[in-house]
Amino acid sequence: xxxxxxxxxxxxxxxxxxxxxxxxxxxGLKTACVDNWQNRDGKQAxxxxxxxxxxxxxxxxxxxxxxxxxxxxxFGDFGIKVDKFALDLATMQKRRGxxxxxxxxxIAQLFQGNKVTGIAGTGRLGKGGKVSVEGLDGKKxxxxxxxxxxxxxxxxxxxxxxPFDHKKIVDSWDALEFEKVPKRLGVIGAGVIGLEMGSIWRxxxxxxxILEALDEFLPxxxxxVSKEAQKQFRQxxxxxxxGAKVTEAKTGKSGIKLSYETKDDKDSLEVDKVxxxxxxxxxxxxxxxKDSGVGVDExxxxxxxxECRTGVEGVWAIGDLVRGPMxxxxxxxxxxxxADLIAGRTAEVNYETVPSVIxxxxxxxxxxxxxxxxxxxxxxFKSGRFPFAANGRANALGMPAGMVKMLVHKDTDEILGVxxxxxxxxxxxxxxxxxMEYRASAExxxxxxxxxxxxxxxxxxxxxxVDNRAIHIVNRK
Length: 477
Ligand code: FAD
Ligand code: NAD
Hints:
The chain is α/β, with parallel strands linked by helices.
């Protein structure tokens, strides 16, 4: 095989692409991964949106800002007197950068250790497994591959009245890197990014107003759980305005004036910066030559089947570039599946058990169906709920807000969905994902011993509550 010929070429080095490349190499396939992510210093780094500007840096800032807020507002309740404390944003940002570097550097090492050829450049798929690459150093080369995995990811959607200037009208990457706390921060979109970023900057001192076009708050989450979360966010001071559509933005000396419409009113809001977080779009432009044969839908998603095959022999596509939730773990699981299928192994992704998490306080995590979805689909179900206020560990942590809600089939008792708002919901959800993967019933969770005192006891109790047998709440008659 010549130097430029590979069994597998992956275009894109995010959690979809780099994971696919590592698994392909583990499977004994000669693999290259071409990636064009450039950090602010112009240097390429593997890890894509997730490691460089998404999952990892946002969690670093969420953790730091939560500690800051707890120091100011909660330590007194724990009997800890803090007379003096101050925000050192520069150090907080440096820590974020350090964590990102550690993880992106780790990918480069994993590539070396697994003999994946990492190429810093932009790849474009041609016909017959040819990938033309323009290196970030300007050098051009053509790679040939028996299999190509497209993993080019996504980018923020821009709103017409609010084109990004990356100073006052910013995207999520910009908003992670503010050097000063904005006095007034507007956020367009009360989705995952809006809530996470809004929480970070509110905790650090911004007045945060979120304008959301829909009348409903987090419609994908079970309504009882999202209502509880919304109540908590409002108590914290996040000003969430639902049913608000921005019509105009005017930048002036004193800030940005956002005009917006609600069902029966027109209003405006003045802010110093505005984060536009209204979703992301697949990066499929300039990825495919006209004769590549790969289909792209009207929204730019590369068309694939359940096994991520594009329909062109040997060309696959994964992650944010294709249908389904835009989540790192979904991208990675698709990468593993494709690399295994290429190697002739059996592999699949169970799209019914993709967990979602919003890392706010309380955290919100869910998997499977919500009550409103089950009603709409006419599925007979029963449900059980358990509040963290009745859980010893949650109270010891000083985090009693929220609940676990479990939905199960009325006749078979199979778990159909679990929705959690509460402390460490991100960790609690793993138990029920595994349970659903095994098609477990509420009874299976009821009969499983959970350590005391743990937050996981709330999941146990929610399963018991399905049959009105929870111990630490008074059950429905
Ligand atoms: P990406 O991570 O976008 O990677 C694609 C890579 O391909 C990039 O490096 C890009 O530069 C490169 N590329 C594009 N075109 C080409 C080309 N032609 N040639 C070469 N390279 C190319 N998800 C979670 O699951 N949990 C979270 O907590 C979470 N937090 C997030 C926070 C923020 C602020 C954001 C923005 C996103 C977050 N996400 C989170 C979503 C997550 O980042 C994405 O779902 C995930 O990164 C998708 O992985 P991917 O590999 O498909 O694409
Ligand atoms: P999102 O789809 O989660 O939320 C966008 C929100 O903007 C929606 O509520 C939508 O109704 C609203 N909206 C759309 N147009 C609007 C308009 N014109 N005016 C006001 N509101 C409008 O998208 P996002 O928050 O931008 O996140 C993008 C992707 O990144 C998501 O798919 C998400 O899964 C992923 N992500 C995941 C995590 C995580 O897993 N914790 C964190 C951040 C991002």
